[in-house]
Amino acid sequence: MWSYILKRLLLMIPTLIGVLTLTFGVIQFVPGGPVEQAVHELRRNTAEGGAPFGLRAHSGVDAQQVAQLKALYGFDKPPLERYWLMLKRFSHFDLGQSYFRHQSVWSLIVSKLPVSISIGLWTFFLTYLISVPLGIAKAVRNGSRFDMATSLVVLIGYAIPGFVLGVLLLVLFGGGTFLQLFPLRNLTSDNWDQLSFFGKIFDYLWHIALPIVASVVGSFAVVTMLTKNAFLDEIRKQYVLTARAKGLSERRVLWKHVFRNALLPLIVGFPAAFIGAFFTGSLLIETLFSLDGLGLLSYESVVRRDYPVVLGTLYLFTLIGLATKLISDLCYVWVDPRIQFEQLER
């Protein structure tokens, strides 16, 4: 076991380096870098009578100012030197400073986490709390009208993109064409600090309702159908027929014998689903409902060519993804002792 874990941990190093190297290489050929954007902003502010970045305003942008900008962003060094400096910083988890927000990347990520955690936790728990019982009920009533009707509903929800559903919810309930029952932005109201304890809870749920509905509806189909198929596979096995032949009630067969084995694919997927819910929130949902989370941060960083934020968040998310994959593999063995680590390596 420990040799397998050590091997997987060592394999994370070249994987991380490969991801960072590929991204760093692509960045070198992307037009409109931070220096070019700063020069454009400098020219615009010069025309308006000001000058950003503490630079002296002239009628134009001369070579000295461009050199100052390159030194400010570290582009006065050759690419290979910047690449090694980046790897050196990342080796001790220094993600650097944002070019345009004038904050450390760590502080930016931490400031966006409340939104991502809120959306992630609600999406994860609601998806599993609804989909797993629904999938079990569908397996027990396989082929019935209930099974067909619920399959139609969850597949329609899966077919509707989250941002389209979000627009529909805003039109219907967010003050669009019909009712204004829910707020349009942020997780809390401006007077949240003055509210009572239960008032804060209600205010938070009031703000999060529409974004969560738009996020989770599309997730129901995958978990529901996975649960149903897993239960159907187990129900058809020989040990279930033997248990029924011994006179055990259908309820006892289902919950004592089938339930534990059928949930194996779901249990081992918990770590990835739980972590993924935080870091794979829909960018369009965050933008649509004006929620300033990690998805919106990543998008704005790419648009503005804020490379420390792009590379820092990529490094962190890749590391978390690799660790989550390792935990998921370990769960196979912890949940089902029949699986050996040698099988996972194949």
Which features characterize this protein?
globular; mainly alpha; single chain; 17 helices; 346 residues; 2 domains; MetI-like fold
Structure report:
With 346 residues, the protein is mainly alpha-helical. The protein has two domains: 61 residues, no CATH class; 241 residues, MetI-like fold. It contains 17 helices and no strands. It is globular, with a radius of gyration of 26 Å. About 2% of the residues have low confidence. One of its GO terms (biological process) is transmembrane transport. This is ABC transporter permease subunit. Belongs to the binding-protein-dependent transport system permease family. It is found in: Cell membrane. Keywords: Cell membrane, Membrane, Transmembrane, Transmembrane helix, Transport.
Mean pLDDT: 80
- CATH names the topology of the largest domain as MetI-like fold
Order of helices and strands: HHHHHHHHHHHHHHHHH
Low-confidence stretches: 53-59
- Helical segment count: 17
Radius of gyration: 26 Å
CATH architecture of the largest domain: Orthogonal Bundle
Number of β-strand runs: 0
State the end-to-end CA separation: 15 Å
Question: What structural class do you assign from the helix and strand content?
Answer: mainly alpha
Quick structural overview:
The chain crosses the membrane at residues 9-30, 119-140, 152-184, 204-227, 262-289, 309-335. This protein is mostly helical and 346 residues long. It has helices spanning 2-27, 34-48, 63-73, 79-91, 105-140, 145-159, 162-173, 197-216, 220-235, 238-245, 250-262, 264-268, 270-279, 283-288, 294-303, 307-335, 341-345.
